[in-house]
Design goal:
With about 180 residues, this protein is mainly alpha-helical. It has a domain of about 70 residues. The protein is about 60% helix and about 0% strand. It contains 6 helices and no strands. The termini are far apart. About 10% of the residues have low confidence. It comes from Pitta sordida (Hooded pitta). InterPro entries: Casein_kinase_sb_PP28, HAP28. This is HAP28 protein.
């Protein structure tokens, strides 16, 4: 096999603590310079965007925020016009439109439709118009008839029993009178 060695056997390179400190101080210095440019150097820099902002202080700072966002990698070097890329814009409380109609998601719409269909079915079911309701009503009618017949039979049996008991008492009373 013509295998080549992996990365594990190579000599490791460590950054010395002095280099790390130097990098951190360079980053802090760069951040301070940017802050000074933002605060004090508005007129002196000659940047047309910042001069426009100083004149129009009523406008929101959305463009400035997007411009100052920290960019990763070569993103800061190349301007990309991607129509699919949506920048997150923060809206102020005064800009929010609470009165407008709220767009529902597909799941929310389906859930609402499902609830409405269930309500319609229950109304029709209570009115006796669905097949299941008709079957239930027919079953109930059969059960009512069976119960009425059972009650009638019980009543007849009870009457027959009472009559038999009365007849037995009469025979007993006649036999005692003799």
């Amino acid at each position: 096999g013509g295998r080549k060695g992996g990365h594990k056997g190579r000599a490791r390179q460590y950054t010395s603590p002095e280099e790390i400190d130097a990098q951190l101080q360079a980053e802090k210095q760069k951040a301070r310079e940017e802050e000074e440019q933002e605060e004090g150097g508005e007129g002196a820099t000659g940047d047309p965007k910042k001069e426009k902002k100083s004149l129009d202080s009523d406008e929101s700072d959305e463009d400035d925020e997007d411009y100052q966002q920290k960019r990763k990698g070569v993103e800061g070097l190349i301007d990309i016009e991607n129509p699919n890329r949506v920048l997150q814009t923060t809206k102020k409380v005064t800009q929010l439109d609470l009165d407008g109609p709220k767009e529902l998601s597909r799941r929310e719409r389906e859930e609402i439709e499902k609830q409405k269909a269930k309500e319609r079915y229950m109304k029709m079911h209570l009115a006796g118009k669905t097949e299941q309701a008709k079957a239930d009503l027919a079953r109930l009618a059969i059960i009512r008839k069976q119960r009425e017949e059972a009650a009638r039979k019980k009543e007849e049996e009870r009457k027959a029993k009472d009559e038999a008991a009365m007849a037995g008492k009469r025979l007993q009373s006649l036999s005692l009178n003799k």
